[in-house]
Amino acid sequence: MEFRVNKNCFHQALSAVGHAISLKTTASILSGIKIVANDNHLLIIGSNSDIIIEKAIPGMIDGVRVLEVNDKGSVVLPAKYLRDIIYKLSDDIHVKLNANHSVTIKSAEIVTDLNGLNSGEYPDLPLLDDAVTIEVRSEEFLEIVKQTAFAVSNSESRPVLAGVNMTFRDNVLSCVATNSHRLASSELSLETKVTGSFIVPSKSLNEWTKLMNEGEDIVHIIISKSYIGFKSNHISLFSRLIEGSYPNVMGLLPKDPKTVIAVDTDQLIKGIDRACLFARGGRNNNVHLEIVDCTKLRISSNSTECGKIEEYQTIKSIKGEGEVSITLNGYFLMDALKVIKEKEVKLSISGAVKPVLIEPGNGAASHFHLISPVRSS
Amino acid sequence: MEFRVNKNCFHQALSAVGHAISLKTTASILSGIKIVANDNHLLIIGSNSDIIIEKAIPGMIDGVRVLEVNDKGSVVLPAKYLRDIIYKLSDDIHVKLNANHSVTIKSAEIVTDLNGLNSGEYPDLPLLDDAVTIEVRSEEFLEIVKQTAFAVSNSESRPVLAGVNMTFRDNVLSCVATNSHRLASSELSLETKVTGSFIVPSKSLNEWTKLMNEGEDIVHIIISKSYIGFKSNHISLFSRLIEGSYPNVMGLLPKDPKTVIAVDTDQLIKGIDRACLFARGGRNNNVHLEIVDCTKLRISSNSTECGKIEEYQTIKSIKGEGEVSITLNGYFLMDALKVIKEKEVKLSISGAVKPVLIEPGNGAASHFHLISPVRSS
What we know:
- The first copy, chain A, has 377 residues and is α+β, with helices and mostly antiparallel strands.
- Chain A folds into three domains: 2-121, DNA Polymerase III, subunit A, domain 2 (DNA Polymerase III, Chain A, domain 2); 132-240, Roll (DNA Polymerase III, Chain A, domain 2), CATH 3.10.150; 254-371, Proliferating Cell Nuclear Antigen (Box).
- Chain A contains six helices and 28 strands.
- In chain A, the strands form five sheets. Chain A has a nine-stranded antiparallel sheet with strand order 16-13-14-15-28-27-26-20-24.
- In chain A, a hairpin with a 2-residue loop joins strand 18 (227-232) and strand 19 (235-240).
- The longest helix of chain A has 15 residues, at 265-279.
- Chains A, B: This is Beta sliding clamp.
- Chains A, B: Residues 136-248 form the DNA polymerase III beta sliding clamp central domain.
């Protein structure tokens, strides 16, 4: 194996696939990055047991030559050392594989020898023979992930809840995530004949959003029996699917809320953020919401140790009963509000013990959020 | 106690004095910030057992009223809560002390009650009756601190080495710091009749540099029996001095070096930085320097586990013997090089087991650095 590569391209690729590499791994081969030099491109691969990221460096980018392969081959090199050393070298980098899986890296007057491992010991990419592929506009896909993935469960007691339930049906992709105290749901129209439901680890989705730049147009979603893949231009991420069946959560949607109010989204975020300061000591981050005189929303929280806070915000419109109070986990409410881009947000309250529905205020919502109240002590 | 204050001024003051507050303190009064409202200014005070920071907020800043005191008084409030809540409020902040040392903070429609403590329990500022004061140009003082404070010892076995030895004599301030493997020394001319030598904790000096903005002209250094204070405009820092006698280190300066070379400072920093990548596994971060053919400096390091690196840099001038090699702790060398602003750096080598002298290359050095070699295995 021997090639010359542009420093920035190489470093960028190493950083991207580095996202998949855990420093805590016990398998030393997985603390490495696999480099494959083919005739006209490099493949850079990083992996842990759940996620595989593969980045390709082509010969030319925007008409400029960034890679020249003299000799095909492959090797696995220690991820952290390789990334650090490439970062500290100058533009033109020359890599040559020696015997014993070590490589010599030359750049200007600097010569580095790096001990590597046999690339034959590196785990294979998942077989995707039976896979189907769906095309989605990248920006819309990132949006639907952002609107839902935060709501998964961090607890290990129900593994399916650590994933986002992605369902393709009738040219609609729907994503649902819940930790059984709050739920986020979002839908996206697309064109596909694929029908099916899959549970995708939220970690994999979050990694994918980090890898994407704004410029990407289309993401190809590749689904096989136990893997899902995302592919866009020169980068791919493959993730194991979570096995099991996802609970049916749609029955939780309140059908006939007692009170529906609209408030300013940004103001409400700021108010809840302040109330959380005093709520964070408590077990459930209790923030109290109360409608006062049908015109004001009172936001408050208190901590016996530190003190208390209260404020009043203007209700922009109200339907239904005028005397309502409810206690919510302030952080759950903040999470939901933060993915609402619209100026106004609509809260539908069905009583002190029933889930609150949170939606964008314009009514044309493709996503909504449910939060179960905390029982006030 | 009752006052109105501009949010930004208040928050900035709380952040500044917050530097002195340790969250790990066992004395709950020291996890608080003391606020004293006087007729025409606020004093905001934070402290741990070693450092006290005091910031004053005057009534007017640049012709704009930022403070109005209605009622004098004082209280101690929990630092973290107070800073967080003030940060999340709007411009105009109204603070009023209630019974039981709680305060009510109002800002627009937001009302907060914060539980505080009796300010009478807060430790007094150090008595500075016998103090002398020295004026130094702030920028020059920060420079001399930056050139030396990094070199102190982190070990607790010799407490005096955790401080910078500041000596005033014959209108010169000299600062020396060492961890017994490396030493940094710098001098500054000033006008003072004070003569004496003091050991100042490097932590206190570092905190002071963080508090200083570029705009400050003069720093007043106040020295009493067991305290040193720094004062500039509206901010003061008081620090306990370290007791004990500082070792005499000036005898370590090499008198007749075998070889003196000059190299490009920036290039050398980059080369040592690269070599450190492979040195960090070892016990002493061994980086090898070798003069080759009187014209090249070979920089190298190796790790049996990971690999090795070597590079050659151009020697700009050389005096004395042409065949020299030495092994240094790469991080110590980097630290010294980083405070050298000059384009060229001079290394004076007296042999493989004697300290290397590192100085700015222009010869008019007010500061120098010594690093003891590592004995090569």
